[in-house]
Amino acid sequence: IRFQRLLLTGAAGGLGQELRARLKAYCATLRLSDIANLGDEGAGEELRPARLEDAGAVLSLLEGVDAVVHLGGVSTEQPWEPILQANIVGVYNLYEAARKQGVKRVVFASSNHVTGFYRQDEVVGPNDPARPDGLYGVSKAFGEDLSRFYFDRYGIETVCLRIGSSFPEPRNRRMLATWMSYDDLERLVVASLTAPVVGHSIIYGMGDNTTTWWDNTLARHIGYRPQDSSEPFRAKVEAADPHPDLTDPAVIYQGGPFVRTGPFE
Ligand code: 15L
Fold first, then answer.
1. How far is CA 221 from the centre of its chain?
2. How many angstroms separate the CA atoms of 191 and 213, rounded?
């Protein structure tokens, strides 16, 4: 047990459900928040449904927590209004609450879609300019910038995780590069919570894959060592899609299908 109380937002989502089970080992109390149903409160859990756009609710959410794992918000390309509320207003409310409640570290679920308009024949690192592949990617870039400001101005540390594709298995050719197992996700989040000093850091959430588009060498101080590779799934994934269309933007760019989602009106 390293923490008295951790807050996990977005706890009802795909990665939230995984981390709900896994983060309990690291804290006496795990506070869980979402707008979707969180089920029953287990031992060592506190269920606190909250809307991220509700500043007052978010302020009480962060009361008495040692650190936050912020997965909450919209996680796909969507129309502007939901993204504005959950990911822009919501992340501002989160950092204001951290400032007012004295919370000193946040692990922010950013996304590979911050740099989704780089091509699949380029290798990108955290110091390259953002090239978001949609409004969702723009909102995650905003969260990265906002968290950098809260570090420079108020000393609140953040690790921005530009998560690739975290699923039980890679589902397509793109995910041979972007895939991260749930065990590696846990390793990454725990390293981000427990590294002695992180300042403001950006790290791509990927596994120990053979094909990679992302350079994490500038984030070695976090101490994340991925252990699972997409390579054992390669033959199966390639057989399912033997002739990819090399003129399809989803095949050309790192963001995959996100680069051609929308507009919505
Ligand atoms: C994301 O940011 C999404 O939240 C997730 O559902 C995946 O689609 C992932 O990116 C991806 O790029 O595969």
1. 19
2. 22
CA dist., res. 42 & res. 103, Å (int): 24
ipTM of the complex: 0.98
Coil, strand or helix at 39: coil
Residue tagged active-site, from 136, 204, 224, 253: 136
Give the nearest ligand 1 atom to 175 CA: 13
Would you say the CB of residue 113 lies under 6 angstroms from ligand 1?
yes
Other Cβ atoms within 10 Å of 64 Cβ, number? 14
The CATH number of domain 3-260, selected from 3.40.309.10, 3.50.50.60, 3.40.50.720, 3.40.50.2300: 3.40.50.720
Q: Ligand 1, atom 2: nearest CA belongs to which residue? A: 111
**Does 132 sit behind a cis peptide bond, omega within 30 degrees of 0 on the bond before it?**
no
Give the type of residue at 191: A
With 0.95 as the threshold, say if the pTM is over it: yes
Binding site membership of 147 for ligand 1 (Cβ less than 6 Å): no
Q: Count the helix, strand and coil residues of the chain and give each as a percent rounded to the nearest 5.
A: 40, 20, 40
Cα distance between the two ends of the chain: 49
For residue range 24-75, what is the model confidence (pLDDT) as tens digits? 999 999 999 999 999 999 999 999 999 999 999 999 999 999 999 999 999 9
pLDDT in tens, 102-143: 999 999 999 999 999 999 999 999 999 999 999 999 999 999
**For this structure, is 253 an active site residue?**
no
Ligand 1 probe mutation, 120, 163, 214, most atoms within 8 A of CB: 163
Q: Is 115 in the pocket of ligand 1 (CB under 6 A)?
A: no
